[in-house]
Design goal:
The chain is an all-alpha fold and about 270 residues long. The protein has helices at about 15-35, 40-60, 70-90, 90-100, 105-110, 115-140, 150-180, 180-200, 210-220, 220-235, 245-265. It has eleven helices and no strands.
């Protein structure tokens, strides 16, 4: 679906219907790109599989890791969250490419509200996150992870993936609006990714962290995604913060980021 889908014809829906159509048009364009380049999905699946198969198997023999059960079970939700983060945090690259190709200028002259474009981009990122989750679920099942396959739990996992993808891709879009070049964006993206990942509860429990790192982890949105995933993805999983807190924190941060990105998005063309 091209940017022409964002143009309103005389018979087009108005109000909320038009807003939804414009959001989905942006997300559908991403689905088309992904369908035309499935190799990217395969290449992006290698890293999380290596984390589970190599890192997970080695660290499972470290006695000091008191996770309250199998370390592979503990690690799998963290690696799913990591995979979503790594895909979404570099999503701003596509906005810079679209500007260089002239696509972004077409978005800017369309009648679509800027917030619809931003949310559409966030939904588009979640498509990749969902594809990654399928690969990680299959790998985790082969490794004997005690997965919960209850429909309600899987729906909850899906919602967390969508929320986390939206959060980090919108954050990535804000970075792209600030740095505006591919080279600077790659440097900033690589600088941010590892601290966000390691300053979370993805690969070790909060109880093991020193007080200063524990405080940072509690302010890190990735920790709330991981906490929710551990509760829903694993059979008998429990949430340390509470599922309501996990979803509320992610939604609150997304709302703030969407407002900021909506204001900054037009600057990318300048």
């Amino acid at each position: 679906m091209s940017t022409l889908a964002l143009q309103q014809s005389p018979g087009s829906p108005s109000g909320a219907g038009a807003y939804l159509t414009q959001m989905l048009a942006v997300a559908a364009a991403e689905a088309v790109k992904l369908r035309n380049d499935p190799v990217e999905l395969v290449s992006r699946s290698v890293q999380p599989i290596l984390w589970l198969v190599l890192f997970g198997q080695v660290m499972a023999h470290v006695r000091g890791l008191a996770t309250g059960g199998s370390y592979i079970d503990f690690l799998a939700p963290g690696i799913l969250a990591q995979s979503v983060l790594f895909v979404a945090i570099f999503y701003g690259l596509s906005a810079i490419w679209e500007r260089d190709l002239g696509v972004l200028h077409r978005y800017m002259v369309s009648p679509a509200p800027r917030s619809a474009l931003v949310i559409g981009k966030a939904l588009a990122s979640s498509i990749r996150g969902i594809c990654q989750s399928i690969v990680i679920y299959l790998c985790a099942a082969l490794l004997g992870v005690r997965l919960s396959l209850q429909p309600a739990h899987m729906l909850g996992v899906l919602m967390l993936i969508v929320l986390a993808s939206a959060l980090f891709s919108t954050f990535s879009l804000i970075i792209a609006c600030i740095v505006k070049t591919l080279e600077r964006f790659m440097g900033v993206g690589q600088f941010l990714t590892m601290p966000i990942f390691f300053a979370s509860n993805a690969i070790y429990p909060l109880a093991m962290m020193p007080a200063w790192l524990k405080a940072i982890s509690r302010a890190n949105p990735l920790s709330y995604e991981v906490d929710g995933l551990r509760s829903l993805m694993l059979a008998g999983g429990q949430s340390q913060f509470g599922l309501g807190v996990d979803y509320s924190v992610l939604l609150a941060i997304i709302a703030a980021l969407v407002v900021a990105a909506t204001r900054m998005y037009p600057r990318l063309t300048q």
